[in-house]
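[job 0412] stage=complex_fold ligand=NAP status=START
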Amino acid sequence: MELCDLKALNWRGARRAGAAAAEAALGLDYLPIDTCQRRVAICNGADMLSLVRRQFPDDGALESFEGADAYAFLLRFAAGLESKLVAETEIFGQIKTAWREFCDRGSALACQLSPWIQLLFQDAKEIRSQHLSRLGSASYGSQTRRLLGDEAGAGPTLLIGAGQLAQSVAPWLPGSELWLWNRTRERALELARELAKREPARPLRVIEASADAELAAWRGARNVIVCVPGDAVQDAARVAAWQQRAERAGRVIHLGLPADGAAPWKGLPGLVSLGALFEMLQLQSEQRRRQFERARRACQEKALLRSLGATSSHPHSWEDLAAFDSL
Ligand SMILES: NC(=O)c1ccc[n+]([C@@H]2O[C@H](COP(=O)([O-])OP(=O)(O)OC[C@H]3O[C@@H](n4cnc5c(N)ncnc54)[C@H](OP(=O)(O)O)[C@@H]3O)[C@@H](O)[C@H]2O)c1
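[job 0412] stage=complex_fold status=DONE, emitting structure tokens
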């Protein structure tokens, strides 16, 4: 597969559960990557691109990239430069998981894309280490820990959820004890086992999966980190339980909540939503902004080098880029 045949679509919208399976059934051969901020599709050739495009809503939020531009976009995406939490690291793991699952389905595209995806992973790691490593950690976990501050150690921290986000946040959470609650208790137990392997001395408690046990934990925790989507009924009960606490210190950090405005969370003392967390991070220093800019330029340069030298590891020297006015 030549780089000119690489096509990528980027739709900035909420993910649709089960969409990948439904589309595989339609016989469309493309690599879907779903995150909470976007859906990306990667395919081979213009004909497939026009078929895949029809699977996306026609709402003006769809961007299309081809050839070196597609590679540059995918590199920015993998390096976290397209994320609202700029330079976050979780996205790389999500892309690797999507790629592994896609390869397991054994389509022709998986073979065709493989050299490009390997280069993409290699280039993304290089961009991160050259341009983004000195920024300090930018993960949902590190930001959550920063928000909770040193006082979090004064009481238990309750983590709601045991999915992808909860797994990445859990190791960062401070607190005298970490309480885990998840709708499916087996997944909370699995997360507890993983955490115990990493930090055997950490006090952990897995809460019963019932709604009552969850609400009792809300009333007893100092901080609560929510890593599940909103739920109209249970959220009202969660807010009520939080407000019943005798001890008023502490925070609710709700990473499944796009903005503060949504009822019943609106106005809750100590609440930080995912939307608010993004806003805080937008107030980044000028130095961070310049570093991101350099990293974005490096993505463009790498894509151009790849378009010159196909799939070898070091196809051309950086001096070759001088030939291009665009840089
Ligand atoms: N992944 C990220 O990088 C990221 C970043 C920012 C925000 N978010 C947001 O965080 C939330 C979780 O994302 P994720 O990536 O961790 O998803 P995930 O891997 O699919 O896990 C979903 C989690 O939510 C739980 N859940 C789903 N529906 C529920 C319901 N109705 N009631 C109670 N629990 C429910 C699941 O419980 P079971 O185990 O019982 O299914 C699981 O713990 C989403 O709202 C997502 O938009 C994710």
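Confidence is low (pLDDT under 50) at residues 315-327.
[job 0412] exit 0
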